[in-house]
Amino acid sequence: MNNIGKNYFDVGYIDALARGRSPLHRLDPRVKLITTLLFIVTVVSFGKYTLWAFIPFVIYPVFLISAGGLPAGYFVKKALLVLPFAVLIGVFNPVIDRTIMARIGMIGISGGWISFLSILVRCALTVTAAMLLIALTGFDAVCEALTKLGVPRPFVVQLLFFYRYLFVLTDEAQRMERARTLRSSHAGVRLKVFCSMAGQLLLRTFDRAERIYSAMSCRGFNGNIRTIKTIRVRWGDIGFMAGWGLLFVVFRVYNIPVKLGELILGCLR
User: Fold this and answer.
1) 108: DSSP letter
2) Where are the domains of the chain?
3) Percentages helix, strand, coil for the chain, rounded to the nearest 5?
4) Which of 69, 175, 205, 233 has the most Cβ atoms closer than 10 angstroms to its Cβ?
């Protein structure tokens, strides 16, 4: 419990990354949001037995990490934390679908294993793209971009509050765990103590959230999302979105790895 804020809800670090000064950070949030949505929709639109066609899509997150000056290891670790959920989704595919779809030497690979690996790759690509969007934009700017694109304001405000109250939840959890550690000689947390702490955590988080909202209301909060930077679409932003969108379409229409393999085999002949 003492590592909740550090290992699982490390949203503060992503917010710090969003304050960078690279050209990608200065792009219009709406452009980055639309481009990320195009990437996610394109990736999930493939058939369930698609696997090799995802290789070219790795270029997009690699480019964002490189051009944005972001730590690659951090996002790899966060993507790995989400993969167990994808494993639960496709864990029974190899059992249900046993039709042999490919062979490596004498070893036959069933369609269930291919679809299972396809789910893992899709999950890793889409989750990484979403985290990179927040790391290059900031969650406040993403919410403002959603509002500008016509998403209902109540939904956006609830999304923003949910994100911000993660800070409240993790902060209260760390304070309670610190207090327990100072008052107890046991290294671990017993079940009875854990249940009591979980209930107290929810109550303390609710009370603190009420105080935060009251403070916001006293300062004139009326449901509008205000950011320091004024978002404005420029020609470079449009070029970024159009270029990547066209590239995603090419990756979707043409199986680049297969085409390259056919070209190499044709040259060798």
Assistant:
1) E
2) 10-151+230-261, 153-223
3) 75, 5, 25
4) 205
Residue with tokens 């709406």: 30
**Residue 212, C-beta contacts closer than 8 angstroms, at least 6 positions apart:** 168
Residue count of the chain: 269
Report in angstroms the alpha-carbon separations of 48 from 51, 122, 226.
8, 10, 42
Q: Each residue of 24-80: pLDDT tens digit?
A: 999 999 999 999 999 999 999 998 888 889 999 999 999 999 999 999 988 988 888
Whole-number Å distance between alpha carbons of 27 and 137 = 8
- Indicate the DSSP class of residue 230: P
Lookup result for tokens 């496709």:
90
Q: Is the pTM of this model over 0.85?
A: no
φ, ψ of residue 110 in degrees (nearest 5): -80, 160
- Are 131 and 32 within 8 A, CB to CB? no
